[in-house]
Design goal:
Elements lengths: L1 H6 L8 H32 L3 H28 L9 H4 L5 H7 L2 H9 L8 H33 L3 H30 L7 H22 L21 H10 L1 H15 L7 H9 L6 H16 L1 H8 L1 H22 L4 H23 L1 H13 L4 H29 L10 H7 L5 H26 L6 H11 L5 H7 L5
Helix pairs in contact: 2-7, 2-8, 2-9, 3-7, 3-18, 5-7, 6-7, 6-9, 7-18, 8-13, 8-16, 11-18, 11-20, 12-20, 13-16, 14-15, 15-16, 15-20, 17-21, 21-22
């Protein structure tokens, strides 16, 4: 009995099996998205497309994609596809799981199509192929990510359980995205020589099977909103109501702005392998500090929720974020010629940097709970669609910005299928191009990290108040009892 109690804490709604299936499904979705984030810039550089043209194409896709993200967020909150004749058999029960079940398999399909760009096609054809397939990839990404992330609210009303799920999800994603990134880098490196297309195809098949159990073996335990001031309004509401929900929640705006600044300026993420190849003569050399930091970084991530419970989510995020940004800046000013010192600083930066990333994920469900309490409407879909849009926008903006800045330098475009072929071609780059690559790889991300922390200083939603709001929303206490215990009027 004692062992059972340890595995299932009192008051938790989900079972251990459900949480495992949620983690595996989320990991499959995360890695499917990450393979494009990690490989897209390299893939386009290997295609030999003009960097300024492709950076413009990325922004065009993002402008179009902005509309489908928000529109889908509205529909996922408003429409019940369980009543659809076409999709009802796929949809099943729940609030967000039906959308996931009906659409998740499209994501790996369009990811594979994205990477099937013909190598020998004219540049105009490649740009059209990229624009169309990247837009379809983005659309299917939204169809999976919005219900997946919204589910954290409908899985359980227990805030400690949510934080634990988010922490575990963050740790698992952090570990396996790092391992996947290392594995992919090795496979496409000059030492192995596989093509990006082959790596993407095999990976996408694997990720499909990882996402499959979530569709059949997980249940939402907090799908219905209770204790709303007008229960009828929670069942049917208009697009205007959705906009009011967004307007009400200033805290989610702060989070999204912080994410926009942080992730939008992570220009080095997609160019890390290129930086390693051209700055150090080997595409694998920058894996060394990542490997060294793996164990201490994982231990730190596993204790993020404990640190947050002891010191507060915001305090942990601010302290670790500032420390991580400072170390980032130091690395740039040391210069890429001092690899040993750079590697040491990268190892030190990994721990606070990853704690800050996981701590930040704890804020969004709190802001959703706040809006449910204030408006009586469940707008999780619209908020997570905005979050999905910002995440996709920033990953594309960072890639577009990195390519654009590299294109402004004296960078020499090279057409190749892999690093093995790139090494054989042995095309040198100018010193100006290499200096620009170092700025893109290290300085701009450091600035983005610091700016995102400054924005989060304005976040003031108290954790103790969120717990009361969650109890009220789930019907555990009345609105009157909640109002009486809140630290201030919201």
């Amino acid at each position: 009995m004692a062992r059972k109690a340890k595995l299932q804490p009192e008051g938790w709604r989900t079972t251990r099996k459900e949480r495992i299936n949620y983690y595996i499904g989320d990991l499959g979705r995360t890695l499917e998205a990450y393979i494009v984030t990690a490989m897209m810039t390299l893939f386009l550089l290997f295609q030999g497309i003009d960097l300024l043209k492709v950076s413009g194409a990325i922004l065009v896709v993002k402008i179009i994609d902005a509309f489908d993200d928000v529109i889908f967020g509205f529909f996922i909150d408003k429409l019940d596809i369980k009543n659809s004749k076409l999709l009802s058999k796929l949809a099943g029960e729940g609030k967000y799981l039906p959308w996931y079940r009906a659409t998740f398999f499209l994501f790996p399909i369009f990811t594979v199509i994205f990477f099937l760009m013909p190598q020998d096609a004219p540049e105009a054809v490649k740009l059209i192929w990229f624009t169309v397939t990247y837009l379809l990839y983005d659309l299917t990404y939204t169809l999976v990510e919005v219900p997946m992330n919204s589910m954290i609210v409908s899985l359980t009303d227990n805030t400690n359980e949510r934080d634990t799920i988010l922490k575990n999800k963050g740790i698992i994603s952090g570990i396996f995205t790092m391992l996947a990134g290392v594995l992919w880098t090795v496979l496409i490196s000059e030492h192995v020589g596989l093509s990006i297309q082959l790596v993407a195809l095999v990976s996408s098949v694997l990720f499909f099977f990882m996402m499959l159990p979530l569709a059949t073996k997980v249940k939402e335990h907090n799908a219905e909103l209770k204790n709303a001031e007008n229960q009828q309004e929670t069942e049917r509401y208009t697009f205007k109501d959705m906009l009011e929900c967004v307007k009400t929640n200033k805290y989610v705006f702060i989070i999204l702005l912080s994410v926009l600044l942080y992730a939008g300026l992570q220009t080095g993420g997609s160019l890390g392998t290129y930086a390693s190849f051209y700055l150090y003569g080997d595409s694998l050399i920058l894996i060394v500090p990542i490997a060294i930091a793996f164990i201490p970084q994982t231990i730190a991530q596993m204790n993020t929720d404990r640190l947050c419970r002891k010191f507060g989510k915001k305090n942990v995020f601010m302290f670790c974020g500032i420390l991580g940004a400072t170390l980032y800046g130091m690395i740039y000013f040391v210069g890429y010629n001092h690899f040993t010192l750079i590697a040491a600083l990268l190892v030190l930066q990994a721990m606070p940097g990853n704690i800050a990333v996981i701590a930040k994920t704890f804020f969004t469900p709190d802001t959703i709970e706040y809006t449910r309490y204030k408006t009586g409407k469940d707008c999780s879909g619209i908020f997570f669609s905005l979050n999905a849009f910002v995440n996709k926008l920033t990953s594309s903006v960072s890639a577009s910005l990195g390519l654009f800045l590299l294109g402004l330098s004296e960078w020499v475009a090279v057409e190749a299928e892999s690093f093995e072929e790139l090494a054989a071609l042995n095309v040198p780059q100018t010193q100006n191009a290499l200096d620009s690559l170092w700025i893109i790889y290290m300085l701009i991300p450091a600035i983005g990290t610091l700016l995102s922390i400054v924005v989060m200083a304005f976040y003031s939603l108290k954790e103790s108040d969120v717990k009361l709001m969650a109890k009220c929303n789930s019907g555990e206490i009345t609105r009157e009892a909640c109002e009486a215990q809140l630290s201030r009027k919201y």
